[in-house]
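Q&A log
Question type: sequence-to-structure
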Amino acid sequence: MKKAIQILCVVLIGVTVMIGFRWHRYVTSSDTPYDEVGITLNGYMPGPLRTWGCHKLKERFPGQLPPYGCAGPDGRSWA
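Response status: OK
Response body:
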């Protein structure tokens, strides 16, 4: 039983690291703010991380429309 819990913990940590890395790569070095996987992952992030991600995307793509989840009330301005 102890071995199964240990394996489960390692798998959960591994998945968390992979998802976190993919999200961070989207926010800091994506070619476009409209990457579907990145937008989805950003939507699942806790509020402070999502806000930071949207702020970084706004800095990197100032002249483009914001992706879903980073738009203001009108849908055309950054939140």
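Response note: The chain is about 65% helix and 0% strand.
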